[in-house]
Amino acid sequence: MLKVEQARSGDPILKWNNRLLSSRIDPRKEAVSFVNGLDVHPSTDVLLFIGLASGYQLVEAVKRFPDLHIIAIDGHGPICEWIKKTHGMELRHAELKVLSQEDKGALQHLQARLLGVNYQLVQIPSVRHIFPKWAYDLQDHLNFRSQQAFRFLVEKRSWSHATVETCQLASIKELSEAVPKGSGLRPFVKILRELVK
Amino acid sequence: MKMLVVDLLRLGDLLMHRPLYQAMKREHPDVELHILINSDAKVAEPILKQWFSEIHIFDRKQYQNACLDRSASLLSAVNQLSWQIEDLNQRHFDYVVNMTQNKLSGYLTDLIEAEEVYGLTIDNKDRSDFFSPWFRYLEDHVTLGGANVFHYNDALAGGLGLQIQPEDLRCRFDEEPQFQDEVRSLGLKTKGLVVQATSFDSRKEWDVTSLGDALLAFQSLNQDSSITLIGAPFEADQIQSLYGQLQARGLHLQMALLSLGGVTALLNQSKCLLTVDTSIKHLAAGTSCKIVELALGSADVRKTGVYKDHSLIIEPKIECFPCAHRADGCERKTFECRQAIPGDLAGLALSHFYRGTLDGLHVLAEQTKDECAMSLVKTTPFGFWRKISCSPSDWSFEASRLLTMLSTQRLLDGSHKPMGTDVALHLIEEVYLLMGAMDSDRFSKWLKSIEADSFKKQTTIESMVHISRTLRKHHNPAECLEKMHQKLVTEIHVDEDPNLFDRVRRGMEIDWSTSKLVDNFDYLRQLDVALDHSFQKSEIQHRLIRYAKELSERRTR
What are phi and psi of B509, to 5 degrees? Predict the structure, then answer.
């Protein structure tokens, strides 16, 4: 399933089920252009890459944002291993993790680390196209827009009266409907709901 | 002592509240003032610094993005908001004042810990508290409209127990040399007319043809006066295009793109400002410049008109004016309000006002009273804002309106017992002024007619209170409310008591065939409060008239 090929620039790139994860012409140039397009908010502490592609975007981000902590997660162990081996030195300041969708424990552990931290999610387009379900589900989860993530949030913050039976939490409206009267979370959600009216 | 003012409105509203901040500072010199403003109004920071030791920013856009953008974290919005509130609470405020009066600010104010709270708060169980009848009034009356509502500044001052003094209106912002230099560097000819034609809300803008007509009429009558078109630097393209179109009509204009400080400096060197409803209007209220406000679209002068004595307000007389603040575009598609004010007539009025020929203005207002309304602003001697029609045939109506506002003010202040002679004396003097001459016969006639009206109104309210009492025992509440509605529409004008009209109408919307009285206890309580207020107000009005009558008779003798 996983193959290594060579781009025209001479750099090695990955192919997953016959689909290239990076540019076949010049993956480094592609990475520079991707990182140039990132709109990193000044208050961000952590950049969280969902998916690694062939690792070039991550290498460029490490170079460009030396003050940020960078965490990169991928659903496939062999991809992670290959990137560590290929870009090892260039990625020494980044934290690479394998995180499959089924590993709920690891996901919750990551979420606990992210509570109270200003983090920004980064998704490489090829990852979003080749592994859409994994990428979007993980994104929703890390953005606390899934039921399971919300349940976790309620638990961590002791908003003991909140219930989440019917909500998918795609929006603040749904979050607001999910939080019953009297919950400590409610005033904040109400303010946010007024803001987006 | 520390006080936090929650003022999450637009820039214009913040500048309109200037006299309130000044009055707060004057009346509480030992209190450290803080303010929470929207990120959009950040540009006002240099102005706000004169009153507030710390300016806190509520980053509305950041929160909105986090809520609406699927790729952003919902938690980050919740987190950041809770951090901001925690940060504010760490300042340990003694007082918190909500000057915004909307749901968002109500929830937010409730989360701020303070010894004393003024203004709307909404708690976790959605119970609202207003802390003063004035803030309640803002909710019950001002939002409903009506001709006799108090200006926002007056209602807020009433709620905060502040008295706005004439010196509170002055803006000391332009005294910094950089702003004077900003104007000087443009080499403008000053002491003339300044025109602010653009607004954040395009519905409030006049069409270029009418504006051109008005300025041409003004220019032909005041050939030595300069006309300067102003705008903010970010409006450069819009102002440049407008400048080109007006120049093509043969107008001799200057153009200036200035900061808020620069505009204040220019206005202090100018004779008059012609403006639509915008922040510059409120800024100008603190300068020596005369102001002509052209109210169009959603500009509701009753609530947010220019807060400066002797300013001229021109409004269209069409049914849909002012339109709802939140509506997008014009509901009639054709912006009829723009067409309702003929450019040449407005130019003529502007010229009369500019030269101080008020007699001419009165004649013009009388002639054009079917198309548009021209009024002059007055804040003395009662301490609240009024616009008085320039058309002499409206003055008897103005006197009655003054009486209604006076009785409301005294009801809300709780100061109607015992009645002071000063108010009655001021009232007599004011009515004499409005009548144009010290004609005691005319005055007595007016008093008699107004007394009869007031008596009629009091009787109506009394009978409504009676109906309301039987409503609980009645088998058919819908029929009772229908009766009340009939009485209201035939005997009281909606502007007299919009709140009572609203309460009765709401009652008529309830399906009484399926719901029980006990289910609508909250509604019945609100109806009782509205009736009680109307009754008290009519009593105060009645007493005020009697007192004015006695004094007037003593004077005549």
Answer: -80, -15
Q: A189 to chain B, minimum CA–CA distance in Å?
A: 7
A38 and A102 co-located in one domain: yes
CB B364 within 8 A of CB B400: no
For this complex, say whether ipTM is above 0.85. Answer: no
**Mean of per-residue pLDDT scores for chain A:** 80
Q: Is B333 left (phi over 0), alpha (psi -120 to 50) or beta?
A: left
Radius of gyration of chain B (CA): 25
Phi, psi of A136 (to 5 degrees): -70, -40
Say what the pLDDT of residue A162 is. 43
* CATH, residue A59: 3.40.50.150
Chain-chain contact of A170 with B70 (C-beta, under 8 angstroms): yes
Count CB-CB contacts under 10 A for residue B163.
Answer: 11
* Same domain (yes/no): A134, A118: yes
Q: Packing angle between helix B440-471 and helix B521-556, nearest 10 degrees?
A: 160
Closest CA to B79 of B95, B93, B65, B66: B66
C-alpha A179/C-alpha A159 separation (Å) is: 9
d(CA B34, CA B53): 6
Residues in chain A within 8 Å Cβ distance of B68: 171-172, 196
B13 touches chain A (CB under 8 A): no
Identify the residue whose tokens are 């959009």.
B40
Residue A121 forms part of a structural domain? yes
Judged by a CB distance cut-off of 8 A, whether residue B64 touches chain A is: yes
Query: Is B81 in contact with A188 (Cβ distance < 8 A)?
Result: yes
Provide the 3-class DSSP secondary structure of residue B63: helix
- Chain A residues within 8 A of B126 when measuring between CB atoms: 181
The SS3 assignment for B249 reads: coil
Chain B interface includes A192 (CB < 8 A) = yes
Query: Which residues does chain B have within 8 Å of residue A148's beta carbon, measured at their own beta carbons?
Result: none
| CATH number assigned to the domain covering B2-169 | 3.40.50.2000
Which residues does residue B129 pair with via DSSP β-bridges, in sequence order? Answer: B121
| B-chain residues near A186 (CB < 8 A) | 124
pLDDT digits (tens, 9 = 90+) for A140-185: 777 766 656 666 655 655 544 444 443 445 577 777 766 766 777 7
CA of residue B529 relative to chain centroid, distance: 25
Is residue B39 within 8 angstroms of chain A, CB to CB? no
